[in-house]
Amino acid sequence: MDKQITLYAAKICPYTQRVEIALSEARAEYTRFEIDLQNKPAWFQPQVNPESKVPTIAYGGPPVPPSQPSPESVKITESLVLLEFVADLFPQSRILSSDPVERAKTRFFIDFFSTRVAPPHVAALLRGESFEPLIRGLLGFQELLSKEGMYAMGDQFSIADIAVAPFILRLETAVTNELGVYEPGEGTKFWSCYQSHPKFERLRRYAAALKERESVKSTYDSEYIKNAYSKRFEMFKAQRKVAAAATAA
Ligand SMILES: N[C@@H](CCC(=O)N[C@@H](CS)C(=O)NCC(=O)O)C(=O)O
After folding, report:
1. What per-residue confidence (pLDDT) applies to 1?
2. What is the mean pLDDT of residues 43-60?
3. Helix (H) / strand (E) containing 34
4. Which site among 39, 74, 126, 156 is 20 to 30 Å from 93 CA-CA?
């Protein structure tokens, strides 16, 4: 019998969604357990993840309720490690090529996104910095997309797509709803440039293909993310006001 998989997850978390997409592509049977990040259960950090983060997979061990994790299951963390783990467990999902060159290209693509797109994305939304570095990062990222195929590496949907999709979806939800600590109007300005400028044509087609993928659609609830981001950014804005007032005093 296959070993059991329990995914400790949070709906708001893009890293969690990566793993959910991969498991969905693999048609894996698993138990999902939502962790309230504002009020984590006391057993989570000592028994599941010493870093106290989602996503974490508990793999194998006896059948136990997720809230009573067994010391006999292996606990695996870090979304990118988990994507490769799911790909290894379910090779028929074909989300990671067996060809060494394709694998290297896939990892390079993910690394580029993590180092050139994610940081300016966070800077714009959470620190209110200019969207210009994000635009430059996205244009560089776009150059790595396959020219003919629908997805990053061609027509085969892969962990390259899975790694970036949750962030691309959340960026759209954030800026189209002006959610972030940036000046009002900046999100809409960025979005209308992205939506209308010919230089973003390939990226727009790619984003549309990601949004249409069933595994991506079924793991993303834009209304939920909109409400959760709205609350989170209101809190950040209030904290920034307090910090600014303290600096001025
Ligand atoms: N590098 C980790 C990042 C995971 C992460 O930061 N998860 C966040 C939620 S999106 C978390 O659990 N934070 C702990 C907390 O909020 O206390 C990964 O790729 O899995």
Report:
1. 55
2. 98
3. strand 31-34
4. 74
